[in-house]
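Whiteboard transcription, Tuesday session. T.W. wrote the structure tokens on the left side:
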């Protein structure tokens, strides 16, 4: 997407500049540059080719219906085996790289142990490149990088491979800031290195995503030192089949009454954002919080009562929920109706981020519910009506993508996000809707702390029912 030019020949310490697209009422190209320094000179040209000194010929291989040649190198470093496979095509007397795959340490860019794959879409030999190619284009004047932040950080954002190649120390610096910001500490040096490796991977993903010009931004948050498996444990919605909820009735009068936008936070119908931790208890948050909103409306918008997620974690096992290992809102509704209500958070005790012993009979009942309603699946208008007329609504989404894990602002839309009923894995709370720059969104409250997203919230695109916000919404009727 960007042109990055490296000039180690420019005195005294070299120069790097980037030609990037910009928008300010109109689209144009801009040049941002940085001079090398004595401590960090621009003294070499970045390579994208492996050193094949230790590779040996394996033999012919069929690749994309072509008969090519594979080279291989294996080595053991510490306790990890590294395997590198390079596929080349022979054109006359020249070998042209086509594909490089390895599981090991990145000897090209100097990175950590991981799986890497390179596709060489175009590779030309013998082409003379005019010297002016490496000059700043005529009519452009390079300027310093705009905005706050260290010059070193801006270099990496603009040219991410430079951090891999030169080991500028930015990841180390950012990791230290991350630990301070979020109060992170680790048991021993081994865990520290593992967490830093997670952070490095996530940090690069974040900057890579933000360069793609999407409708939303991602950022480092408190999850930046976690891996995919740990984040998967936080997504605890488990669809098991139909339930006994009442059908939703949508009338023309309900549709006509809909405002252009809605935010239940503004009138106090939503409790503060909470943190479920590394526990698949999201279903208990969606359940308790939609009941909180319904109770607020039932009390004529005069009193907000916080209800206990831990009550549902501890007590709904017989109804099919599994605490930290996942569950469904409707199963919790069924338990509440059968057992005389849900406890207040104050009386039941704090959320433990773990399964506990049920002690509901010793707690104060916050409210009882008479029934629960399944909002018409996939119908955005029905969900808007349910939100406006009945308060915040529990919804289930596909939250499995890293873009969602590190969402920070904007309208979230990921084309990979699924919306099938059995493709959803996380329970959240819809508290409103609106439009931003002409794009419709659902205002959604998450339970991953206010360090996540926009102070704990996300604007989720209405387009194509992305991520399934409108697939399985539910709300309750207070008894």
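and on the right, the sequence the group agreed on:
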């Amino acid at each position: 997407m960007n042109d990055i030019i490296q000039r180690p020949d420019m005195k005294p310490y070299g120069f790097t500049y980037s030609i990037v697209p910009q928008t300010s009422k109109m689209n144009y190209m801009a040049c941002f540059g940085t001079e090398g320094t004595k401590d960090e000179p621009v003294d070499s040209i970045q390579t994208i080719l492996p050193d094949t000194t230790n590779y040996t010929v394996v033999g012919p291989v069929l690749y994309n219906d072509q008969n090519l040649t594979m080279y291989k190198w294996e080595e053991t470093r510490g306790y990890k085996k590294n395997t590198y496979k390079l596929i080349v095509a022979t054109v006359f007397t020249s070998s042209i790289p086509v594909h490089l795959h390895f599981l090991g340490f990145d000897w090209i860019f100097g990175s950590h142990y991981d799986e890497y794959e390179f596709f060489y879409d175009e590779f030309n030999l013998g082409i003379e490149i005019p010297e002016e190619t490496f000059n700043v284009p005529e009519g452009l004047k390079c300027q310093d990088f705009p905005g706050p932040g260290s010059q070193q950080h801006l270099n990496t954002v603009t040219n991410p491979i430079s951090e891999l190649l030169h080991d500028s120390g930015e990841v180390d610096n950012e990791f230290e800031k991350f630990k301070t910001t979020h109060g992170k500490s680790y048991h021993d040096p081994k865990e520290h290195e593992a967490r830093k490796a997670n952070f490095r991977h996530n940090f690069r993903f974040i900057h890579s995503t933000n360069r793609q010009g999407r409708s939303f931004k991602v950022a480092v948050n408190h999850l930046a030192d976690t891996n995919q498996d740990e984040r998967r444990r936080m997504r605890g919605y488990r669809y098991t089949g139909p339930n006994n909820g009442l059908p939703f009735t949508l009338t023309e009068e309900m549709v006509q009454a809909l405002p252009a936008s809605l935010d239940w936070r503004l009138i106090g119908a939503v409790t503060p954002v909470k943190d479920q931790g590394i526990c698949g208890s999201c279903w208990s948050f969606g359940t308790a919080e939609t009941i909180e909103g319904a109770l607020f409306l039932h009390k004529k918008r005069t009193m907000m009562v916080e209800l206990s997620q831990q009550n549902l974690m501890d007590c709904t096992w017989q109804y099919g929920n599994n605490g930290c290992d996942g569950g469904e809102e409707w199963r919790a509704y069924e338990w509440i109706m059968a057992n005389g209500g849900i406890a207040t958070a104050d009386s039941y005790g704090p959320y433990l981020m773990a399964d506990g012993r049920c002690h509901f009979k010793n707690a104060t009942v916050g409210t009882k519910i008479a029934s629960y309603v399944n909002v018409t699946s996939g119908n955005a208008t029905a969900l808007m009506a349910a939100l406006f007329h009945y308060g915040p609504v529990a919804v289930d989404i596909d939250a499995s993508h890293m873009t969602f894990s590190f969402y920070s602002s904007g309208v979230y839309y990921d084309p990979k996000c699924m919306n099938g009923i059995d493709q959803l894995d996380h329970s959240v709370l819809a508290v409103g809707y609106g439009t931003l720059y002409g794009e419709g969104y659902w205002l959604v409250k998450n339970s991953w702390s206010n360090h996540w997203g926009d102070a704990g919230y996300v604007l989720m695109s209405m387009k194509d029912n992305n991520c399934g916000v409108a697939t399985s919404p539910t709300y309750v009727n207070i008894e």
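Someone added at the bottom: Residues 56-107 form one domain.
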